[in-house]
Amino acid sequence: MLGLMQHHPLLISSLLVHAERHHGAQEVVSRRLEGDIHRTTYRELAARARRMAKAMQALGVGGGERVATLAWNGYRHLELYYAVSGMGAVLHTLNPRLHPDQVVWIADHAEDQVLCFDLTFLPLVEAVAARLKTVRHFVLMADRSHMPAATKIPNLQCYEDLIDAQDDAYEWPVFDEQRASSLCYTSGTTGNPKGVLYSHRSTVLHAFGAALPDALNCSSRDAILPVVPMFHVNAWSLPYVACMTGAKLVFPGAGLDGKSLHELFESEGVTVSAGVPTVWQGLLAYVEANGLGFSTMKRTIIGGSACPPAMIRAFQETYGVHVLHAWGMTEMSPLGTVCSFRNKHLAMSEAERLALQTKQGQAIYGVDMKIVDGNGAEIPWDGQTSGELLVKGPWIVQQYFKGDGGNPLVDGWFPTGDVATIDADGYMQITDRAKDVIKSGGEWIGSIDLENIAMAHPGVAMAACIAAPHPKWDERPLLVVMKKPNAMVTKEELLAFYEGKIAKWWLPDDVVFVDAIPLGATGKMQKNKLREQFKGHVLPTI
Ligand code: AMP
């Protein structure tokens, strides 16, 4: 017997319709590339998104066709999020931080038909336009006064002209919720990037899961500033969560430096933010150097790479901003776990709670996870034994775009490539990426632990721990350190800093100081580059 309830497909357009009808006056504020602060509401934004959907149709974009963006976080990008997916086409968020050759490769692979881009990326698009095989229309996300007088880009259109040419009389089409809505490529540190093709259903379900109190805990009382770019896994779904909950949205545009971010946090009463640790490092340094604080920020979601405990402490103890350590990946839309507290944790000491927060946390509803040994057998949840982490759920990839890489699943589970422990309460902790694990004499050393300790040293700005070849142990840890400006820290001092904090055999064999640690297009340390750089490094023999 079937249930007798209404059937409404879970479509992305329904999020915007909800925001327009029930939170129509809620604000969307953007720092624009034009230099000003732009203010709009969900009501106005929804009307413009409908006009943009009609404009896309007028450009000949059909169902399932890809419309790419090269854009910062801003209201026009949000309009495209809803216009493109809402009309039944697929929004493909390109990462502008990639090498131009990679941008071309990915746009070709995705067969993008239209490319919408921010002013900042005009030179990039001019450089690659002739090489893009499938793009028929280029759209500059600006008004007429910002259009270039002359350009090499064929068929360049003005975003505001496209909107002006349409009215907002448009009904969002209703279709199967399993249809593709957006496309995002993995970073491809090994081999070519692979496309993860989200559906309307997976996106809406993920937004439900992400908004929950033990996840990102968002509501209509919040003002959310996603620092995480809309070109990185849909800004961790915050553009959808905001419409679902009726929260205010604040977009930083290209202003991701500490000063610009801090100004916006304060002027717009931001309560929640989200980003990778490297961004917060810049913000914290600025706030500290200028003796500032946060008057409205309640919590910040930190993920994308392990959040060093020193950063959690700085946010919580110095500035009263609660840290939610989260883990996920492009293949997971991205959210998998969030480290929120249970009742029993509230009675713990600060130090115990901080230790808990270094973990990536508990699975949100919709995500199941397990850890397995080398033979694929499940490992107990003892918080000690580590193994490869596998996940499954309705917003986790089943197959990559165009079938690239074959069937990624193992008995219905997606292997994340992360190595983790899970404790008896189900709190997961990443110890490493499988490819970053240091294998010393047949035992694994987790590089994240070693990095976290180094980053707690006051003289260290950033630290990466990589495997260096060793004649006896196969591999031993080599610590690569970027000092804070003017810090006077030595190798001996750093090694002594580890004393009592780890098992003796985990101690790095050597420390090297560098001017900069290479960061990838999503702000993660590129350990493959460091391994390449230090592949001939000879460890001192003891
Ligand atoms: P991406 O698909 O580019 O978002 O990268 C996903 C990968 O980032 C994961 O598989 C992890 O290796 C890493 N990652 C994400 N969040 C965390 C976290 N909180 N701690 C450690 N690693 C993380």
The level-1 CATH class of the domain at 436-533 = Alpha Beta
Radius of gyration over alpha carbons?
Answer: 23 Å
Mean pLDDT: 96
Distance between the termini: 73 Å
- Oligomerization: single chain
Molecular shape: globular
CATH names the topology of the domain at 436-533 as GMP Synthetase, Chain A, domain 3
Record the strand order, biggest sheet: 2-1-11-10-12-13-14-15-16
Biggest sheet details? 9 strands, mixed
Strand content: 15-25%
CATH homologous superfamily of the domain at 436-533?
ANL, C-terminal domain
> What are the low-pLDDT stretches, counting only 5+ consecutive residues below 50?
none
Please give the count of helices. Answer: 17
| Bound ligands | adenosine monophosphate
Helix share, percent? 25-40%
Secondary-structure-derived class: alpha/beta
CATH-level-2 architecture of the domain at 436-533: 2-Layer Sandwich
Total number of beta strands: 25
Can you describe this structure in just a few lines?
The chain is α/β, with parallel strands linked by helices. It is 29% helix and 24% strand. The protein has a domain at 436-533: GMP Synthetase, Chain A, domain 3.
Descriptive report:
The protein is of the alpha/beta class and 542 residues long. It has a domain at 436-533: ANL, C-terminal domain (GMP Synthetase, Chain A, domain 3). The protein is 29% helix and 24% strand. The chain has 17 helices and 25 strands. The strands form five sheets. It has a nine-stranded mixed β-sheet with strand order 2-1-11-10-12-13-14-15-16, sandwiched between helices. It is globular and about 75 Å long. The N and C termini lie far apart (73 Å). The model has no long low-confidence stretch (mean pLDDT 96). It binds adenosine monophosphate. Adenosine monophosphate is lined by residues 186-187, 233, 303-306, 325-327, 329-330, 334, 360, 416-418, 430, 433, 522.
